[in-house]
Amino acid sequence: MSYCSTRGGVASVDFADAVRMGLATDGGLLVPEALPSVTPQTLGEWRRLRFQDLALEVMAPFVGDALPRADLVELIDRSYATFAHPEVTPVVEVGDTSILELFHGPTAAFKDVALQFLGNLFEYLLARDGGQLNIVGATSGDTGSAAIAGVRGKDRIQIFILHPQGRISPIQERQMTTVLDANVHNVALRGTFDDGQRLVKALFNDLSFKERYQLGAVNSINWARILAQMVYYFYAWGRVADRLRGRPVTFAVPTGNFGDIFAGYLAKRMGLPIERLILATNRNDILTRFVASGAYATGEVYATLSPAMDIQIASNFERYLYYLVGEDPQRVRALLDEMGRTGRLRVTGEEHAQVQRDFTAVAVDDAATLAQIRETYETTGYILDPHTAVGVRAGAGQADLVCLATAHPAKFNEAVREAIGCAAPAPASLRGLMDKPTRCVVLDADIAAVRDYIGEALAARP
Ligand SMILES: Cc1ncc(COP(=O)(O)O)c(C=O)c1O
Ligand SMILES: N[C@@H](CCOP(=O)(O)O)C(=O)O
């Protein structure tokens, strides 16, 4: 399997190089040169596989010859052994809604599904091929701690995580800043998540800096993130397939950077019978407006009760554009140039009609988020986290629905308390964090400040 860039400047890269490259060197995002198809017969065989065996089947064609199959098996088994649930990502019935629980990993959010795997994959590639990796990532709260948990204490890896100061939940902040391993560097940025993501991309686009410091990516710009996230769409379908009796499934996906729902989109393109993908946003509704109007136009970022989705520029939107315009890199470049010049881009009427066939988009504000947490609790006793509540609300009334539960509610107990008057019990991984010592620096959202900090931190290493 080979990978190419959405902007046409990189081609024929194998899986291992795609993972190491992170952002493509032409500024685009790496995508498979051809997507494998899954036949109904294969789906039938996959239906009853346990999560780890299914992960192997889904991932193997994308990994190709870059890793021996036995090594991939070992990586997958080790990555999911850290999950607290034997099924890894179970589907539970809550009233008449199926909830795909993605929060049983070490940091209690869906990011663990990909980042436990990616951390082990980086370690494997470095041990096999040599070299060092200096990870630079941006987080709106969950990627950061999951990435840190994936690589803390690992040889040959340093990790720098930028989070927006004061814009993530207290628990999310502590999950990162209480990790005191020498290879972990937390930065609170005076700015928004979008500022952090812009800086990370600027550092990757500075090719001499990227090469000199051997930068690696843990955000969903890294293809391995999307690949690992595809697995649970197949898994969830397998869990509900008997009940559906041949009807296609609909997924509701709380969306910010568009990585999670994009994985579902690719699963559908591969042949998974998905009727609708419901794109659920909070008040930061740039994607919802795009689906409604065909115009993607940035606006102000609002702080909401689902802060991990307080995002304007969704990284993986570029990957979707690539498929929407018929895998034409020139067209992708033209649309992105328009975006760069004017702050907005517009697709054609025909493309817009396709967008509306691909997604149903719903924006859910904080009041409706709280109402959903309350309603679900009162009718079923189940506590939703605010991001999941956005998805459940957006999917209300849809038949054959599976909602992705992207975080454990105890990560957002301020919102949970406001909704139901009590807190969600915390899993062991979230207990005691507020009493631990922390380490973090505060920087301006300025490329020179971040570049200097990384250079100095790496120079100071023994
Ligand atoms: C809890 C939670 N839900 C949903 C999302 C949105 O996912 P994505 O950015 O892949 O669209 C995020 C952040 O990515 C998150 O942390
Ligand atoms: N919501 C995310 C934002 C980063 O998204 P990613 O999927 O590209 O890593 C977070 O929690 O950090």
Explained architecture:
The protein is α/β, with parallel strands linked by helices. The chain has a domain at 91-107 and 224-427: 3-Layer(aba) Sandwich (Rossmann fold). It is built from 19 helices and 15 strands. It has helices at residues 15-21, 40-46, 51-63, 69-80, 111-129, 142-151, 170-177, 193-205, 207-212, 223-244, 259-270, 286-293, 317-324, 329-342, 349-358, 366-380, 386-395, 413-420, 447-459; strands at 3-5, 30-32, 91-94, 97-101, 133-138, 157-164, 184-190, 215-216, 249-254, 274-281, 295-297, 344-346, 359-363, 401-405, 441-444. The strands form four sheets. The chain has a six-stranded mixed β-sheet, with helices on both faces. Strands 8-5-6-7-15 form a five-stranded parallel β-sheet, sandwiched between helices. Helix 6 (142-151) runs parallel beside helix 7 (170-177) and helix 10 (223-244) crosses helix 11 (259-270). The longest helix has 22 residues, at 223-244. The mean pLDDT is 97. The structure holds pyridoxal-5'-phosphate and ligand LJ64HWYM. Residues 139-144, 219-220, 256-257, 259, 308, 315 line the site of ligand LJ64HWYM.
